[in-house]
Protein backbone atom coordinates (compact mmCIF):
# COMPACT_ATOMS: atom_id res chain seq x y z
CA UNK A 1 0.00 0.00 0.00
CA UNK A 2 2.70 2.44 1.03
CA UNK A 3 6.26 2.13 -0.20
CA UNK A 4 9.00 4.32 1.15
CA UNK A 5 12.11 3.92 -0.99
CA UNK A 6 15.54 5.20 0.02
CA UNK A 7 14.17 8.37 1.53
CA UNK A 8 16.45 11.00 3.01
CA UNK A 9 14.89 14.02 4.63
CA UNK A 10 15.68 16.75 7.10
CA UNK A 11 15.35 20.37 8.09
CA UNK A 12 17.19 23.29 6.53
CA UNK A 13 19.90 21.12 5.01
CA UNK A 14 20.50 19.16 8.18
CA UNK A 15 19.62 15.60 7.27
CA UNK A 16 17.69 13.58 9.80
CA UNK A 17 16.75 10.49 7.80
CA UNK A 18 19.31 8.54 5.81
CA UNK A 19 18.22 6.19 3.10
CA UNK A 20 15.14 4.89 4.90
CA UNK A 21 13.08 2.23 3.16
CA UNK A 22 10.05 0.33 4.33
CA UNK A 23 6.74 -0.97 3.15
CA UNK A 24 3.25 -1.28 4.53
CA UNK A 25 0.64 -3.73 3.31
CA UNK A 26 -3.05 -2.88 3.37
CA UNK A 27 -4.75 -3.73 6.68
CA UNK A 28 -1.57 -3.90 8.73
CA UNK A 29 -0.68 -2.13 11.93
CA UNK A 30 2.93 -1.09 11.62
CA UNK A 31 4.94 0.56 14.36
CA UNK A 32 8.09 2.57 13.93
CA UNK A 33 9.87 2.73 17.24
CA UNK A 34 12.98 4.44 18.41
CA UNK A 35 14.31 6.92 20.91
CA UNK A 36 14.22 10.70 20.90
CA UNK A 37 15.70 12.28 17.83
CA UNK A 38 15.76 9.06 15.83
CA UNK A 39 13.68 10.65 13.08
CA UNK A 40 10.33 9.03 13.75
CA UNK A 41 8.28 12.19 13.47
CA UNK A 42 10.26 13.26 10.42
CA UNK A 43 9.21 10.08 8.63
CA UNK A 44 5.53 10.79 9.21
CA UNK A 45 5.89 14.43 8.22
CA UNK A 46 7.59 13.34 5.02
CA UNK A 47 4.86 10.84 4.17
CA UNK A 48 2.08 13.35 4.79
CA UNK A 49 3.86 15.94 2.67
CA UNK A 50 4.50 18.60 5.33
CA UNK A 51 8.19 17.97 4.64
CA UNK A 52 9.66 17.28 1.21
CA UNK A 53 12.23 14.48 0.98
CA UNK A 54 15.72 15.43 -0.16
CA UNK A 55 16.09 12.12 -1.96
CA UNK A 56 14.09 8.97 -2.51
CA UNK A 57 10.52 8.18 -3.44
CA UNK A 58 7.26 7.58 -1.63
CA UNK A 59 4.54 5.60 -3.32
CA UNK A 60 0.98 5.26 -2.12
CA UNK A 61 -1.33 2.81 -3.88
CA UNK A 62 1.04 2.74 -6.79
CA UNK A 63 1.21 6.52 -7.16
CA UNK A 64 4.13 8.78 -6.29
CA UNK A 65 3.14 11.24 -3.59
CA UNK A 66 6.45 12.77 -2.51
CA UNK A 67 6.04 15.76 -4.81
CA UNK A 68 2.50 16.85 -4.03
CA UNK A 69 1.46 19.29 -1.28
CA UNK A 70 0.23 18.11 2.11
CA UNK A 71 -3.38 19.12 1.64
CA UNK A 72 -3.60 17.08 -1.59
CA UNK A 73 -2.19 14.02 0.11
CA UNK A 74 -5.13 14.01 2.50
CA UNK A 75 -7.42 13.67 -0.50
CA UNK A 76 -5.51 10.56 -1.55
CA UNK A 77 -6.50 8.88 1.71
CA UNK A 78 -3.69 9.49 4.18
CA UNK A 79 -4.63 11.13 7.47
CA UNK A 80 -2.03 12.39 9.90
CA UNK A 81 -2.58 12.70 13.63
CA UNK A 82 0.15 15.18 14.50
CA UNK A 83 2.33 14.94 17.55
CA UNK A 84 1.03 16.97 20.47
CA UNK A 85 -2.55 16.50 19.24
CA UNK A 86 -3.17 20.00 17.86
CA UNK A 87 -6.91 19.99 18.36
CA UNK A 88 -8.64 23.28 17.60
CA UNK A 89 -9.10 24.29 21.21
CA UNK A 90 -11.52 27.16 20.81
CA UNK A 91 -13.91 25.11 18.73
CA UNK A 92 -16.44 22.54 19.81
CA UNK A 93 -15.75 18.86 19.44
CA UNK A 94 -18.33 18.63 16.69
CA UNK A 95 -16.71 21.49 14.76
CA UNK A 96 -13.32 19.83 15.13
CA UNK A 97 -14.74 16.65 13.68
CA UNK A 98 -16.58 18.39 10.85
CA UNK A 99 -13.39 20.19 9.90
CA UNK A 100 -11.76 16.78 9.71
CA UNK A 101 -14.25 15.94 6.99
CA UNK A 102 -12.85 18.76 4.86
CA UNK A 103 -12.12 16.45 1.94
CA UNK A 104 -15.61 14.92 1.86
CA UNK A 105 -17.99 16.74 -0.39
CA UNK A 106 -21.43 15.27 0.24
CA UNK A 107 -23.40 15.94 3.43
CA UNK A 108 -24.54 12.33 3.42
CA UNK A 109 -20.97 11.05 3.48
CA UNK A 110 -20.16 13.39 6.33
CA UNK A 111 -23.16 12.24 8.35
CA UNK A 112 -22.38 8.58 7.85
CA UNK A 113 -18.70 8.92 8.70
CA UNK A 114 -19.59 11.01 11.75
CA UNK A 115 -21.87 8.24 12.93
CA UNK A 116 -19.12 5.70 12.44
CA UNK A 117 -16.61 7.82 14.34
CA UNK A 118 -19.08 8.29 17.20
CA UNK A 119 -19.42 4.49 17.27
CA UNK A 120 -15.71 4.19 17.91
CA UNK A 121 -15.62 7.13 20.32
CA UNK A 122 -18.99 7.24 22.08
CA UNK A 123 -17.64 9.66 24.69
CA UNK A 124 -17.13 12.37 22.10
CA UNK A 125 -20.77 12.25 21.10
CA UNK A 126 -21.88 13.01 24.66
CA UNK A 127 -19.73 16.11 24.64
CA UNK A 128 -20.03 17.26 21.07
CA UNK A 129 -20.86 20.85 22.01
CA UNK A 130 -18.04 21.20 24.50
CA UNK A 131 -14.96 23.19 23.54
CA UNK A 132 -12.01 20.98 22.69
CA UNK A 133 -9.70 22.79 25.10
CA UNK A 134 -11.84 21.62 28.03
CA UNK A 135 -10.98 17.99 27.34
CA UNK A 136 -8.26 16.13 29.21
CA UNK A 137 -5.06 15.13 27.43
CA UNK A 138 -6.27 11.62 26.74
CA UNK A 139 -9.60 12.83 25.44
CA UNK A 140 -7.88 15.35 23.21
CA UNK A 141 -5.79 12.53 21.81
CA UNK A 142 -8.97 10.60 21.07
CA UNK A 143 -10.40 13.68 19.41
CA UNK A 144 -7.29 14.12 17.28
CA UNK A 145 -7.57 10.52 16.10
CA UNK A 146 -11.31 10.86 15.57
CA UNK A 147 -10.77 14.03 13.56
CA UNK A 148 -8.28 12.24 11.33
CA UNK A 149 -10.78 9.39 10.88
CA UNK A 150 -13.33 11.89 9.56
CA UNK A 151 -11.51 12.11 6.22
CA UNK A 152 -12.22 8.39 5.65
CA UNK A 153 -8.55 7.58 5.39
CA UNK A 154 -7.13 4.39 3.97
CA UNK A 155 -3.95 4.96 5.93
CA UNK A 156 -3.79 6.57 9.35
CA UNK A 157 -0.50 8.03 10.55
CA UNK A 158 -0.34 8.41 14.32
CA UNK A 159 2.51 10.37 15.81
CA UNK A 160 3.56 9.72 19.41
CA UNK A 161 0.06 9.34 20.76
CA UNK A 162 1.40 8.30 24.16
CA UNK A 163 2.93 11.73 24.76
CA UNK A 164 1.83 13.00 28.14
CA UNK A 165 -0.68 10.22 28.73
CA UNK A 166 -0.76 7.99 31.76
CA UNK A 167 0.02 4.31 31.08
CA UNK A 168 -3.58 3.20 31.46
CA UNK A 169 -4.67 5.64 28.78
CA UNK A 170 -1.85 4.63 26.47
CA UNK A 171 -3.22 1.08 26.51
CA UNK A 172 -6.68 2.40 25.85
CA UNK A 173 -5.65 4.51 22.88
CA UNK A 174 -3.64 1.63 21.48
CA UNK A 175 -6.62 -0.68 21.73
CA UNK A 176 -8.66 1.89 19.86
CA UNK A 177 -6.06 1.94 17.11
CA UNK A 178 -6.37 -1.83 16.96
CA UNK A 179 -10.14 -1.48 16.64
CA UNK A 180 -9.69 1.07 13.87
CA UNK A 181 -7.45 -1.30 11.96
CA UNK A 182 -10.08 -4.00 12.30
CA UNK A 183 -12.42 -1.70 10.42
CA UNK A 184 -10.09 -1.90 7.47
CA UNK A 185 -7.90 1.16 8.01
CA UNK A 186 -4.18 0.62 7.78
CA UNK A 187 -2.33 2.17 10.71
CA UNK A 188 1.23 3.42 10.88
CA UNK A 189 2.20 4.54 14.33
CA UNK A 190 5.35 6.05 15.60
CA UNK A 191 6.16 5.50 19.24
CA UNK A 192 8.72 5.97 21.93
CA UNK A 193 6.94 3.47 24.12
CA UNK A 194 8.59 0.55 22.38
CA UNK A 195 7.03 -2.32 24.27
CA UNK A 196 3.41 -1.19 24.12
CA UNK A 197 3.64 -0.28 20.45
CA UNK A 198 5.26 -3.51 19.37
CA UNK A 199 2.73 -5.53 21.33
CA UNK A 200 -0.16 -4.39 19.18
CA UNK A 201 1.75 -4.04 15.90
CA UNK A 202 1.75 -6.68 13.20
CA UNK A 203 5.16 -5.52 12.13
CA UNK A 204 7.67 -3.02 13.35
CA UNK A 205 10.74 -1.10 12.34
CA UNK A 206 13.38 0.12 14.73
CA UNK A 207 14.86 3.46 13.88
CA UNK A 208 18.14 4.76 15.24
CA UNK A 209 19.73 8.09 14.32
CA UNK A 210 17.87 8.25 11.04
CA UNK A 211 18.45 4.67 9.89
CA UNK A 212 16.33 1.52 10.04
CA UNK A 213 18.39 -0.89 12.11
CA UNK A 214 15.94 -3.72 12.60
CA UNK A 215 12.65 -4.92 11.27
CA UNK A 216 10.33 -7.83 11.78
CA UNK A 217 7.05 -8.86 13.32
CA UNK A 218 6.17 -7.11 16.55
CA UNK A 219 6.76 -10.28 18.55
CA UNK A 220 10.08 -11.06 16.92
CA UNK A 221 11.35 -7.55 17.60
CA UNK A 222 10.29 -7.70 21.22
CA UNK A 223 12.16 -10.96 21.56
CA UNK A 224 15.32 -9.75 19.87
CA UNK A 225 18.33 -9.18 22.09
CA UNK A 226 19.18 -5.89 20.52
CA UNK A 227 15.79 -4.31 21.12
CA UNK A 228 15.63 -5.68 24.62
CA UNK A 229 18.98 -4.26 25.55
CA UNK A 230 18.62 -0.88 23.88
CA UNK A 231 15.02 0.01 24.59
CA UNK A 232 13.54 -2.19 27.21
CA UNK A 233 16.40 -2.15 29.68
CA UNK A 234 16.52 -5.92 29.97
CA UNK B 1 -19.77 36.00 22.09
CA UNK B 2 -20.98 32.48 22.66
CA UNK B 3 -22.45 33.48 25.99
CA UNK B 4 -24.51 36.35 24.69
CA UNK B 5 -25.81 34.10 21.96
CA UNK B 6 -27.80 32.26 24.55
CA UNK B 7 -29.90 35.30 25.38
CA UNK B 8 -29.95 37.11 22.03
CA UNK B 9 -28.62 35.76 18.78
CA UNK B 10 -25.50 37.37 17.42
CA UNK B 11 -27.53 38.64 14.49
CA UNK B 12 -29.96 40.41 16.81
CA UNK B 13 -27.25 42.07 18.87
CA UNK B 14 -25.44 43.26 15.74
CA UNK B 15 -28.67 44.57 14.22
CA UNK B 16 -29.47 46.54 17.35
CA UNK B 17 -25.97 47.94 17.44
CA UNK B 18 -26.31 49.04 13.81
CA UNK B 19 -29.72 50.62 14.36
CA UNK B 20 -28.41 52.50 17.38
CA UNK B 21 -25.46 53.79 15.39
CA UNK B 22 -27.78 54.90 12.58
CA UNK B 23 -30.11 56.97 14.77
CA UNK B 24 -27.52 58.52 17.11
CA UNK B 25 -26.46 61.34 14.71
CA UNK B 26 -30.11 62.23 14.13
CA UNK B 27 -30.80 62.34 17.84
CA UNK B 28 -27.83 64.58 18.55
CA UNK B 29 -27.60 67.21 15.78
CA UNK B 30 -24.17 68.56 16.60
CA UNK B 31 -21.37 69.02 14.05
CA UNK B 32 -18.60 67.81 16.35
CA UNK B 33 -20.61 64.79 17.29
CA UNK B 34 -21.30 63.98 13.65
CA UNK B 35 -17.58 64.14 12.97
CA UNK B 36 -16.89 61.75 15.82
CA UNK B 37 -19.54 59.38 14.53
CA UNK B 38 -18.03 59.40 11.04
CA UNK B 39 -14.59 58.59 12.41
CA UNK B 40 -16.15 55.95 14.60
CA UNK B 41 -17.84 54.02 11.79
CA UNK B 42 -14.73 54.32 9.60
CA UNK B 43 -12.49 52.91 12.31
CA UNK B 44 -14.95 50.26 13.39
CA UNK B 45 -15.04 49.08 9.78
CA UNK B 46 -11.24 49.18 9.50
CA UNK B 47 -10.98 47.13 12.68
CA UNK B 48 -13.51 44.67 11.31
CA UNK B 49 -11.56 44.31 8.07
CA UNK B 50 -8.30 43.78 9.93
CA UNK B 51 -10.06 41.30 12.19
CA UNK B 52 -10.67 38.97 9.25
CA UNK B 53 -7.01 38.36 8.57
CA UNK B 54 -5.75 38.65 12.13
CA UNK B 55 -8.69 37.74 14.35
CA UNK B 56 -10.07 34.92 12.23
CA UNK B 57 -7.02 33.65 10.36
CA UNK B 58 -4.49 34.48 13.08
CA UNK B 59 -2.03 36.28 10.77
CA UNK B 60 -1.03 39.45 12.57
CA UNK B 61 -0.77 42.37 10.16
CA UNK B 62 0.87 45.57 11.36
CA UNK B 63 0.78 47.09 7.91
CA UNK B 64 -2.86 47.73 7.19
CA UNK B 65 -2.22 51.44 6.75
CA UNK B 66 -0.62 50.47 3.45
CA UNK B 67 -3.97 49.32 2.06
CA UNK B 68 -5.76 52.27 3.59
CA UNK B 69 -3.26 54.63 1.96
CA UNK B 70 -3.42 52.91 -1.41
CA UNK B 71 -7.19 53.36 -1.37
CA UNK B 72 -6.88 57.01 -0.35
CA UNK B 73 -4.22 57.79 -2.95
CA UNK B 74 -5.85 55.95 -5.86
CA UNK B 75 -9.14 57.79 -5.62
CA UNK B 76 -7.47 61.12 -4.80
CA UNK B 77 -4.98 61.04 -7.65
CA UNK B 78 -7.65 60.04 -10.14
CA UNK B 79 -9.99 62.73 -8.88
CA UNK B 80 -7.42 65.49 -8.65
CA UNK B 81 -5.59 64.80 -11.91
CA UNK B 82 -8.30 63.36 -14.13
CA UNK B 83 -11.59 64.31 -12.46
CA UNK B 84 -12.60 60.66 -12.19
CA UNK B 85 -15.49 60.17 -9.79
CA UNK B 86 -14.25 59.08 -6.34
CA UNK B 87 -16.62 56.14 -6.53
CA UNK B 88 -14.70 54.76 -9.46
CA UNK B 89 -11.44 55.58 -7.70
CA UNK B 90 -12.67 53.82 -4.60
CA UNK B 91 -13.35 50.60 -6.47
CA UNK B 92 -10.09 50.82 -8.39
CA UNK B 93 -8.12 51.60 -5.24
CA UNK B 94 -9.66 48.60 -3.52
CA UNK B 95 -8.69 46.37 -6.44
CA UNK B 96 -5.14 47.72 -6.47
CA UNK B 97 -4.84 47.23 -2.72
CA UNK B 98 -6.05 43.68 -3.19
CA UNK B 99 -3.44 43.11 -5.90
CA UNK B 100 -0.69 44.51 -3.70
CA UNK B 101 -1.93 42.36 -0.82
CA UNK B 102 -1.64 39.23 -2.95
CA UNK B 103 1.84 40.07 -4.23
CA UNK B 104 3.11 41.03 -0.80
CA UNK B 105 1.47 38.40 1.36
CA UNK B 106 2.10 35.37 -0.80
CA UNK B 107 5.80 35.30 0.09
CA UNK B 108 5.11 36.58 3.61
CA UNK B 109 2.77 33.67 4.33
CA UNK B 110 5.80 31.42 4.22
CA UNK B 111 6.77 33.17 7.44
CA UNK B 112 5.05 32.25 10.65
CA UNK B 113 4.03 34.03 13.82
CA UNK B 114 6.13 37.05 14.74
CA UNK B 115 8.06 37.00 11.49
CA UNK B 116 4.92 37.54 9.48
CA UNK B 117 3.98 40.47 11.71
CA UNK B 118 7.43 42.03 11.30
CA UNK B 119 7.28 41.60 7.54
CA UNK B 120 3.93 43.40 7.31
CA UNK B 121 5.31 46.19 9.48
CA UNK B 122 8.29 46.61 7.17
CA UNK B 123 6.14 46.55 4.05
CA UNK B 124 3.90 49.27 5.46
CA UNK B 125 6.95 51.46 6.07
CA UNK B 126 8.41 50.74 2.62
CA UNK B 127 5.20 51.78 0.91
CA UNK B 128 5.10 54.98 2.94
CA UNK B 129 8.66 55.81 1.88
CA UNK B 130 7.77 55.20 -1.76
CA UNK B 131 4.93 57.68 -1.55
CA UNK B 132 7.02 60.25 0.32
CA UNK B 133 9.52 60.41 -2.52
CA UNK B 134 7.14 59.90 -5.44
CA UNK B 135 6.81 63.16 -7.29
CA UNK B 136 3.82 62.20 -9.42
CA UNK B 137 1.70 62.09 -6.27
CA UNK B 138 3.32 65.26 -4.82
CA UNK B 139 5.57 63.35 -2.43
CA UNK B 140 5.58 64.57 1.14
CA UNK B 141 3.52 67.68 0.31
CA UNK B 142 0.41 65.59 -0.10
CA UNK B 143 -2.64 66.16 -2.22
CA UNK B 144 -5.31 68.79 -1.61
CA UNK B 145 -8.43 67.63 -3.33
CA UNK B 146 -10.23 70.21 -5.48
CA UNK B 147 -13.41 71.53 -3.92
CA UNK B 148 -16.40 70.94 -6.15
CA UNK B 149 -20.09 71.70 -5.74
CA UNK B 150 -21.90 69.29 -3.48
CA UNK B 151 -23.03 66.03 -4.96
CA UNK B 152 -23.21 62.31 -4.49
CA UNK B 153 -21.25 61.60 -7.66
CA UNK B 154 -18.23 63.67 -6.60
CA UNK B 155 -18.70 62.56 -2.99
CA UNK B 156 -18.48 66.04 -1.52
CA UNK B 157 -20.90 67.66 0.89
CA UNK B 158 -20.32 71.04 2.43
CA UNK B 159 -23.53 71.94 4.27
CA UNK B 160 -23.79 69.00 6.58
CA UNK B 161 -21.72 66.02 7.63
CA UNK B 162 -24.70 63.70 7.65
CA UNK B 163 -24.33 62.52 4.02
CA UNK B 164 -20.74 61.49 4.77
CA UNK B 165 -21.92 59.70 7.83
CA UNK B 166 -24.60 57.72 6.06
CA UNK B 167 -22.33 56.76 3.18
CA UNK B 168 -19.69 55.58 5.67
CA UNK B 169 -22.44 53.87 7.65
CA UNK B 170 -23.77 51.90 4.68
CA UNK B 171 -20.25 50.72 3.84
CA UNK B 172 -19.69 49.87 7.51
CA UNK B 173 -22.83 47.74 7.58
CA UNK B 174 -21.68 45.99 4.41
CA UNK B 175 -18.36 45.19 6.06
CA UNK B 176 -20.18 43.71 9.04
CA UNK B 177 -22.36 41.64 6.75
CA UNK B 178 -19.27 40.33 4.96
CA UNK B 179 -17.49 39.55 8.24
CA UNK B 180 -20.63 37.86 9.57
CA UNK B 181 -20.92 35.86 6.38
CA UNK B 182 -17.31 34.73 6.63
CA UNK B 183 -17.57 33.81 10.29
CA UNK B 184 -20.55 31.57 9.63
CA UNK B 185 -19.34 30.09 6.39
CA UNK B 186 -17.06 27.12 5.92
CA UNK B 187 -14.30 29.54 5.16
CA UNK B 188 -14.64 31.02 8.64
CA UNK B 189 -14.08 27.61 10.16
CA UNK B 190 -11.11 26.93 7.91
CA UNK B 191 -9.56 30.25 8.90
CA UNK B 192 -10.06 29.53 12.58
CA UNK B 193 -8.60 26.07 12.11
CA UNK B 194 -5.52 27.65 10.55
CA UNK B 195 -5.36 30.12 13.44
CA UNK B 196 -5.53 27.37 16.04
CA UNK B 197 -2.98 25.16 14.34
CA UNK B 198 -1.82 25.54 10.79
CA UNK B 199 -0.17 22.14 10.83
CA UNK B 200 -3.29 20.36 12.00
CA UNK B 201 -5.26 22.29 9.39
CA UNK B 202 -2.93 21.04 6.75
CA UNK B 203 -3.12 17.54 8.16
CA UNK B 204 -6.87 17.46 7.56
CA UNK B 205 -6.52 18.72 4.01
CA UNK B 206 -6.99 22.50 4.22
CA UNK B 207 -4.73 24.49 1.93
CA UNK B 208 -3.63 27.20 4.35
CA UNK B 209 -1.99 29.51 1.85
CA UNK B 210 -5.12 29.67 -0.26
CA UNK B 211 -7.44 30.58 2.60
CA UNK B 212 -5.05 33.04 4.17
CA UNK B 213 -4.74 34.69 0.78
CA UNK B 214 -8.54 34.92 0.42
CA UNK B 215 -8.77 36.47 3.87
CA UNK B 216 -6.03 38.96 3.07
CA UNK B 217 -7.70 39.92 -0.22
CA UNK B 218 -11.05 40.59 1.39
CA UNK B 219 -9.44 42.45 4.27
CA UNK B 220 -7.29 44.71 2.08
CA UNK B 221 -10.15 45.40 -0.32
CA UNK B 222 -12.40 46.68 2.46
CA UNK B 223 -9.59 48.61 4.14
CA UNK B 224 -8.83 50.49 0.91
CA UNK B 225 -12.47 51.47 0.44
CA UNK B 226 -12.37 53.31 3.74
CA UNK B 227 -9.11 54.94 2.73
CA UNK B 228 -10.83 56.51 -0.28
CA UNK B 229 -13.77 57.55 1.82
CA UNK B 230 -11.50 59.13 4.42
CA UNK B 231 -9.57 61.08 1.78
CA UNK B 232 -12.83 62.33 0.33
CA UNK B 233 -14.06 63.40 3.74
CA UNK B 234 -10.89 65.21 4.88
CA UNK B 235 -10.15 66.47 1.33
CA UNK B 236 -6.43 66.42 2.00
CA UNK B 237 -4.00 63.51 2.26
CA UNK B 238 -0.28 63.08 2.68
CA UNK B 239 1.81 59.94 3.22
CA UNK B 240 2.30 60.64 6.93
CA UNK B 241 -1.44 60.62 7.48
CA UNK B 242 -2.63 57.67 5.48
CA UNK B 243 0.40 55.36 5.49
CA UNK B 244 1.45 55.97 9.07
CA UNK B 245 2.38 53.26 11.51
CA UNK B 246 0.22 54.88 14.24
CA UNK B 247 -2.76 54.39 11.93
CA UNK B 248 -1.97 50.67 11.57
CA UNK B 249 -1.55 50.50 15.32
CA UNK B 250 -4.82 52.28 16.00
CA UNK B 251 -6.64 49.66 13.97
CA UNK B 252 -4.83 46.89 15.84
CA UNK B 253 -5.31 48.39 19.30
CA UNK B 254 -8.99 49.16 19.03
CA UNK B 255 -9.74 45.64 17.85
CA UNK B 256 -7.62 44.04 20.55
CA UNK B 257 -9.21 46.25 23.20
CA UNK B 258 -12.69 45.40 22.00
CA UNK B 259 -12.08 41.72 21.45
CA UNK B 260 -9.94 40.06 18.84
CA UNK B 261 -11.64 37.60 16.52
CA UNK B 262 -15.18 38.62 17.45
CA UNK B 263 -17.60 40.69 15.40
CA UNK B 264 -18.40 42.97 18.34
CA UNK B 265 -14.77 43.66 19.20
CA UNK B 266 -13.94 46.33 16.61
CA UNK B 267 -17.25 48.12 17.24
CA UNK B 268 -16.74 48.25 20.99
CA UNK B 269 -13.07 49.20 20.63
CA UNK B 270 -13.80 51.99 18.15
CA UNK B 271 -16.65 53.24 20.32
CA UNK B 272 -14.12 53.77 23.12
CA UNK B 273 -11.02 54.92 21.26
CA UNK B 274 -12.45 57.22 18.62
CA UNK B 275 -14.55 59.51 20.88
CA UNK B 276 -11.63 59.51 23.29
CA UNK B 277 -9.14 60.72 20.70
CA UNK B 278 -11.50 63.11 18.93
CA UNK B 279 -12.81 64.76 22.09
CA UNK B 280 -9.41 65.14 23.69
CA UNK B 281 -8.30 66.77 20.46
CA UNK B 282 -11.28 69.12 20.54
CA UNK B 283 -10.77 69.82 24.24
CA UNK B 284 -7.03 70.30 24.44
CA UNK B 285 -6.17 71.13 20.85
CA UNK B 286 -2.48 70.82 19.97
CA UNK B 287 -1.33 70.79 23.60
CA UNK B 288 -3.22 67.60 24.31
CA UNK B 289 -1.70 65.73 21.44
CA UNK B 290 -1.21 62.09 22.32
CA UNK B 291 -3.22 62.20 25.53
CA UNK B 292 -5.80 59.89 23.96
CA UNK B 293 -3.10 57.35 23.25
CA UNK B 294 -1.82 57.60 26.81
CA UNK B 295 -5.26 56.79 28.16
CA UNK B 296 -5.77 54.17 25.52
CA UNK B 297 -2.42 52.57 26.25
CA UNK B 298 -3.44 52.31 29.87
CA UNK B 299 -6.72 50.67 28.89
CA UNK B 300 -4.92 48.18 26.68
CA UNK B 301 -2.53 47.26 29.50
CA UNK B 302 -5.45 46.77 31.88
CA UNK B 303 -7.33 44.68 29.37
CA UNK B 304 -4.26 42.59 28.62
CA UNK B 305 -3.78 41.91 32.34
CA UNK B 306 -7.33 41.33 33.49
CA UNK B 307 -9.43 40.54 30.46
CA UNK B 308 -7.26 39.08 27.69
CA UNK B 309 -10.31 38.38 25.54
CA UNK B 310 -10.95 42.12 25.29
CA UNK B 311 -13.86 44.20 26.56
CA UNK B 312 -16.16 41.62 25.06
CA UNK B 313 -14.84 39.24 27.73
CA UNK B 314 -16.55 41.41 30.35
CA UNK B 315 -19.95 40.76 28.83
CA UNK B 316 -19.16 37.07 28.54
CA UNK B 317 -18.12 37.04 32.19
CA UNK B 318 -21.39 38.64 33.32
CA UNK B 319 -23.43 36.23 31.24
CA UNK B 320 -21.58 33.26 32.70
CA UNK B 321 -22.04 34.49 36.23
CA UNK B 322 -25.75 34.84 35.57
CA UNK B 323 -25.86 31.29 34.35
CA UNK B 324 -24.01 29.88 37.29
CA UNK B 325 -26.44 31.40 39.75
CA UNK B 326 -29.10 29.90 37.53
CA UNK B 327 -28.00 26.56 38.91
CA UNK B 328 -26.01 25.07 36.07
CA UNK B 329 -24.15 21.93 36.99
CA UNK B 330 -20.37 22.16 36.69
CA UNK B 331 -18.38 19.72 34.63
From TrEMBL, chain A:
Organism: Thermotalea metallivorans
PANTHER family, alphabetized: HIGH-AFFINITY BRANCHED-CHAIN AMINO ACID TRANSPORT ATP-BINDING PROTEIN LIVF
Gene3D superfamilies: P-loop containing nucleotide triphosphate hydrolases
Signal peptide stretch: none
Tagged with keyword Protein transport: no
Keywords for this protein: Amino-acid transport, ATP-binding, Nucleotide-binding, Transport
The encoding gene: livF_3
Taxonomic placement: Bacteria, Bacillati, Bacillota, Clostridia, Peptostreptococcales
An annotated GO BP: L-amino acid transport
InterPro entries to which the protein is assigned, alphabetical: AAA+_ATPase (IPR003593), ABC_transporter-like_ATP-bd (IPR003439), ABC_transporter-like_CS (IPR017871), BCAA_Transport_ATP-bd_LivF (IPR052156), P-loop_NTPase (IPR027417)
Superkingdom: Bacteria
Domain spans labelled ABC transporter: 2-234
GO molecular function, one term: branched-chain amino acid transmembrane transporter activity
Protein name as catalogued: High-affinity branched-chain amino acid transport ATP-binding protein LivF
TrEMBL record, chain B:
Subcellular location field: Cell membrane
Membrane topology: Multi-pass membrane protein
Keyword tags: Cell membrane, Membrane, Transmembrane, Transmembrane helix
Pfam families according to UniProt: BPD_transp_2 (PF02653)
InterPro entries per the UniProt record, alphabetical: ABC_transp_permease, LivM-like
Coiled-coil regions listed: none
Any one GO molecular function term: branched-chain amino acid transmembrane transporter activity
GO cellular component, one term: plasma membrane
Membrane-spanning intervals of the chain: 12-28, 34-53, 65-83, 89-109, 164-182, 213-231, 251-276, 282-306
Protein name per UniProt: High-affinity branched-chain amino acid transport system permease protein LivH
Amino acid sequence: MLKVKNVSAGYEHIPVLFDVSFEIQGGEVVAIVGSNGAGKTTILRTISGILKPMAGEIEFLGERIDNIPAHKIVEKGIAHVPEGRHVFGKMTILDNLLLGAYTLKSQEDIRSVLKEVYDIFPKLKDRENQKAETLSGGEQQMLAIARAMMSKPKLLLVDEMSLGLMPLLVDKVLSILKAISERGVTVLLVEQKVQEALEIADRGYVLQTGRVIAEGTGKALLASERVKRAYLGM
Amino acid sequence: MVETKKIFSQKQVLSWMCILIAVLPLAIPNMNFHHVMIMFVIFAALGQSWNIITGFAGQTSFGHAAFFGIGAYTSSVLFWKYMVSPWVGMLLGALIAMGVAVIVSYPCFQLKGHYFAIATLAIGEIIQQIFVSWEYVEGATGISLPILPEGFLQLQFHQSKLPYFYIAYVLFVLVIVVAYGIEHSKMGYYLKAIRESQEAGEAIGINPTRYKLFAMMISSFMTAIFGSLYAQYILYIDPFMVFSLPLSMKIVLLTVLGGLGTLYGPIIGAAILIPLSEYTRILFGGTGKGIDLIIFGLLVVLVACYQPKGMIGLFGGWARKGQRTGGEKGE
